Protein backbone atom coordinates (compact mmCIF):
# COMPACT_ATOMS: atom_id res chain seq x y z
CA UNK A 1 0.00 0.00 0.00
CA UNK A 2 2.83 2.35 0.77
CA UNK A 3 4.32 1.74 -2.67
CA UNK A 4 1.02 2.53 -4.39
CA UNK A 5 0.64 5.67 -2.32
CA UNK A 6 4.13 6.82 -3.28
CA UNK A 7 3.41 6.28 -6.99
CA UNK A 8 0.37 8.55 -6.67
CA UNK A 9 2.54 11.49 -5.58
CA UNK A 10 3.03 14.17 -8.28
CA UNK A 11 6.34 13.85 -10.10
CA UNK A 12 6.78 17.61 -10.41
CA UNK A 13 7.90 19.28 -7.20
CA UNK A 14 5.28 21.62 -5.77
CA UNK A 15 6.17 24.97 -4.17
CA UNK A 16 6.20 24.66 -0.40
CA UNK A 17 4.23 27.33 1.46
CA UNK A 18 6.51 28.91 4.01
CA UNK A 19 5.55 28.91 7.64
CA UNK A 20 5.46 32.69 7.87
CA UNK A 21 5.02 32.96 11.66
CA UNK A 22 8.45 31.37 11.97
CA UNK A 23 9.96 34.51 10.48
CA UNK A 24 8.34 36.86 12.96
CA UNK A 25 10.23 38.66 15.70
CA UNK A 26 8.24 37.13 18.55
CA UNK A 27 9.17 33.59 19.59
CA UNK A 28 8.83 31.46 22.70
CA UNK A 29 12.51 31.90 23.45
CA UNK A 30 13.30 34.60 26.02
CA UNK A 31 16.76 36.09 25.70
CA UNK A 32 16.36 37.98 28.99
CA UNK A 33 15.00 35.76 31.75
CA UNK A 34 14.79 36.21 35.54
CA UNK A 35 15.73 33.48 37.96
CA UNK A 36 13.65 33.61 41.15
CA UNK A 37 14.05 37.28 42.21
CA UNK A 38 17.22 37.86 40.17
CA UNK A 39 16.56 39.95 37.07
CA UNK A 40 19.08 40.82 34.34
CA UNK A 41 19.86 44.53 34.05
CA UNK A 42 20.14 45.74 30.47
CA UNK A 43 20.63 49.25 29.08
CA UNK A 44 21.03 49.16 25.31
CA UNK A 45 23.08 47.46 22.62
CA UNK A 46 22.32 44.18 20.87
CA UNK A 47 21.24 40.86 22.37
CA UNK A 48 20.68 38.27 19.65
CA UNK A 49 17.27 36.58 19.72
CA UNK A 50 18.85 33.15 20.30
CA UNK A 51 21.14 34.36 23.11
CA UNK A 52 20.24 33.61 26.74
CA UNK A 53 20.87 35.98 29.65
CA UNK A 54 19.62 34.52 32.93
CA UNK A 55 19.57 35.73 36.51
CA UNK A 56 21.92 38.25 38.12
CA UNK A 57 23.56 39.70 35.02
CA UNK A 58 24.32 43.39 34.53
CA UNK A 59 24.97 44.68 31.02
CA UNK A 60 26.12 48.26 30.55
CA UNK A 61 25.57 50.39 27.45
CA UNK A 62 26.47 49.21 23.93
CA UNK A 63 27.15 45.61 24.90
CA UNK A 64 26.86 43.04 22.09
CA UNK A 65 25.71 39.48 22.84
CA UNK A 66 25.89 37.39 19.67
CA UNK A 67 23.82 34.35 18.70
CA UNK A 68 23.55 31.33 21.04
CA UNK A 69 25.68 32.92 23.76
CA UNK A 70 24.67 31.94 27.30
CA UNK A 71 25.23 34.13 30.39
CA UNK A 72 24.18 32.27 33.53
CA UNK A 73 24.00 34.48 36.59
CA UNK A 74 22.38 31.78 38.70
CA UNK A 75 25.07 31.38 41.39
CA UNK A 76 27.03 34.65 41.38
CA UNK A 77 26.82 37.88 39.45
CA UNK A 78 28.01 38.45 35.87
CA UNK A 79 29.02 42.02 35.03
CA UNK A 80 29.71 43.16 31.44
CA UNK A 81 30.88 46.75 31.05
CA UNK A 82 30.15 49.06 28.14
CA UNK A 83 31.22 48.34 24.58
CA UNK A 84 32.22 44.73 25.11
CA UNK A 85 31.46 41.99 22.58
CA UNK A 86 30.40 38.45 23.55
CA UNK A 87 30.79 36.17 20.54
CA UNK A 88 28.65 33.31 19.23
CA UNK A 89 28.24 30.26 21.51
CA UNK A 90 30.16 31.85 24.37
CA UNK A 91 29.29 30.54 27.83
CA UNK A 92 29.83 32.68 30.93
CA UNK A 93 29.01 31.14 34.30
CA UNK A 94 30.06 31.42 37.92
CA UNK A 95 31.14 29.28 40.84
CA UNK A 96 29.74 29.47 44.35
CA UNK A 97 33.15 30.44 45.80
CA UNK A 98 36.86 30.62 45.00
CA UNK A 99 39.75 29.16 47.04
CA UNK A 100 41.35 32.61 47.25
CA UNK A 101 38.34 34.02 49.09
CA UNK A 102 37.65 36.75 46.51
CA UNK A 103 34.21 37.10 45.00
CA UNK A 104 33.37 34.38 42.50
CA UNK A 105 31.79 36.84 40.06
CA UNK A 106 32.48 36.96 36.35
CA UNK A 107 33.62 40.39 35.23
CA UNK A 108 34.30 41.71 31.71
CA UNK A 109 35.62 45.27 31.41
CA UNK A 110 35.09 48.01 28.84
CA UNK A 111 35.53 47.30 25.12
CA UNK A 112 36.73 43.73 25.50
CA UNK A 113 36.21 40.99 22.93
CA UNK A 114 35.28 37.40 23.86
CA UNK A 115 35.74 35.18 20.81
CA UNK A 116 33.16 32.59 19.67
CA UNK A 117 32.87 29.27 21.56
CA UNK A 118 34.88 30.55 24.52
CA UNK A 119 34.06 29.74 28.14
CA UNK A 120 34.54 32.11 31.08
CA UNK A 121 34.18 30.76 34.61
CA UNK A 122 34.24 33.20 37.57
CA UNK A 123 37.15 35.17 36.14
CA UNK A 124 38.12 38.83 35.75
CA UNK A 125 38.70 40.32 32.30
CA UNK A 126 39.68 43.97 32.30
CA UNK A 127 39.46 46.65 29.55
CA UNK A 128 40.45 46.13 25.89
CA UNK A 129 41.19 42.42 26.34
CA UNK A 130 40.98 40.19 23.26
CA UNK A 131 40.16 36.50 23.86
CA UNK A 132 40.50 34.29 20.80
CA UNK A 133 37.87 31.79 19.68
CA UNK A 134 37.49 28.55 21.61
CA UNK A 135 39.45 29.68 24.66
CA UNK A 136 38.74 28.68 28.26
CA UNK A 137 39.33 31.13 31.12
CA UNK A 138 39.17 29.21 34.39
CA UNK A 139 38.02 30.29 37.83
CA UNK A 140 39.98 33.00 39.58
CA UNK A 141 42.03 33.96 36.51
CA UNK A 142 42.69 37.65 35.96
CA UNK A 143 43.39 39.17 32.55
CA UNK A 144 44.90 42.65 32.79
CA UNK A 145 44.01 45.50 30.45
CA UNK A 146 45.05 45.21 26.82
CA UNK A 147 46.27 41.60 26.88
CA UNK A 148 45.53 39.07 24.10
CA UNK A 149 44.71 35.38 24.50
CA UNK A 150 45.28 33.38 21.32
CA UNK A 151 42.51 31.10 19.96
CA UNK A 152 42.09 27.71 21.60
CA UNK A 153 44.04 28.66 24.71
CA UNK A 154 43.36 27.63 28.30
CA UNK A 155 44.08 30.01 31.17
CA UNK A 156 44.42 27.88 34.35
CA UNK A 157 42.69 28.74 37.63
CA UNK A 158 44.15 31.75 39.43
CA UNK A 159 46.55 32.68 36.60
CA UNK A 160 47.44 36.37 36.15
CA UNK A 161 47.97 37.56 32.57
CA UNK A 162 49.89 40.89 32.59
CA UNK A 163 48.73 43.91 30.62
CA UNK A 164 49.66 44.35 26.94
CA UNK A 165 51.06 40.87 26.44
CA UNK A 166 50.10 38.02 24.11
CA UNK A 167 49.66 34.57 25.66
CA UNK A 168 48.61 31.29 24.09
CA UNK A 169 48.56 27.52 24.43
CA UNK A 170 47.18 24.91 26.83
CA UNK A 171 48.07 25.95 29.45
CA UNK A 172 48.88 29.48 28.30
CA UNK A 173 52.46 30.64 28.00
CA UNK A 174 53.94 34.03 27.22
CA UNK A 175 54.33 34.68 23.47
CA UNK A 176 55.39 38.30 23.10
CA UNK A 177 54.70 41.84 24.18
CA UNK A 178 51.87 43.76 22.52
CA UNK A 179 52.89 46.67 20.31
CA UNK A 180 50.92 49.72 19.20
CA UNK A 181 49.85 48.24 15.86
CA UNK A 182 48.55 45.14 17.66
CA UNK A 183 46.50 47.33 19.99
CA UNK A 184 45.00 49.20 17.05
CA UNK A 185 44.02 45.92 15.39
CA UNK A 186 42.19 44.80 18.56
CA UNK A 187 40.32 48.10 18.81
CA UNK A 188 39.37 47.99 15.12
CA UNK A 189 37.96 44.47 15.50
CA UNK A 190 35.83 45.51 18.48
CA UNK A 191 34.53 48.52 16.53
CA UNK A 192 33.74 46.30 13.53
CA UNK A 193 31.81 43.85 15.72
CA UNK A 194 29.79 46.66 17.26
CA UNK A 195 28.90 48.11 13.85
CA UNK A 196 27.83 44.66 12.65
CA UNK A 197 25.66 44.25 15.74
CA UNK A 198 23.91 47.53 15.02
CA UNK A 199 23.09 46.32 11.50
CA UNK A 200 21.58 43.15 12.93
CA UNK A 201 19.70 45.13 15.56
CA UNK A 202 18.03 47.26 12.90
CA UNK A 203 16.32 44.16 11.51
CA UNK A 204 14.38 43.63 14.73
CA UNK A 205 11.88 46.46 14.46
CA UNK A 206 8.25 46.63 15.48
CA UNK A 207 7.15 45.11 12.17
CA UNK A 208 8.13 41.50 11.49
CA UNK A 209 9.32 40.01 8.22
CA UNK A 210 6.44 37.66 7.45
CA UNK A 211 4.95 40.11 4.96
CA UNK A 212 7.98 39.48 2.73
CA UNK A 213 6.91 35.85 2.26
CA UNK A 214 3.19 36.29 1.71
CA UNK A 215 1.89 35.26 -1.71
Please describe what this structure looks like.
Helix content is 13%, strand content 30%. By secondary structure, the protein is of the alpha/beta class. It has helices at residues 2-7, 180-202, and strands at residues 32-33, 41-42, 45-47, 52-59, 63-65, 70-80, 85-86, 91-93, 106-108, 113-114, 119-121, 124-125, 130-131, 136-137, 142-143, 148-149, 154-155, 160-161, 165-168, 173-177. It has 2 helices and 20 strands. The two termini are 35 Å apart. A hairpin with a 4-residue loop joins β19 and β20. Mean pLDDT is 83; it is low at 1-22. Strands 1, 2, 4, 6, 8, 9, 11, 12, 14, 15, 17 and 18 form a 12-stranded parallel β-sheet that branches. An 8-stranded mixed β-sheet has the order 3-5-7-10-13-16-19-20, with helices on one face.
Low-confidence stretches: 1-22
Q: Summarize the amount of helix as a percent range.
A: 10-25%
Shape: globular
Q: Count the helices. How many?
A: 2
Which structural category fits the helices and strands? Answer: alpha/beta
What is the number of beta strands?
A: 20
Main beta-sheet annotation = 12 strands, parallel
- Amount of beta strand: 25-35%
- What is the averaged pLDDT score? 83
Determine the N-to-C terminus distance: 35 Å
**What would you report as the Rg, rounded to the nearest angstrom?**
21 Å
The H/E string reads HEEEEEEEEEEEEEEEEEEEEH
Amino acid sequence: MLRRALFKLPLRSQPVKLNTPYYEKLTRHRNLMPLYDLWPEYQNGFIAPSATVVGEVELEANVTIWYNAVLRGDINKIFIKSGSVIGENVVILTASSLPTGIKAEAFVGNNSYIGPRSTLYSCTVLDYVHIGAGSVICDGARLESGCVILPGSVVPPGRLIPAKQIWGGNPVKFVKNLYENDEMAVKEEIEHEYNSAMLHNEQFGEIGHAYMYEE
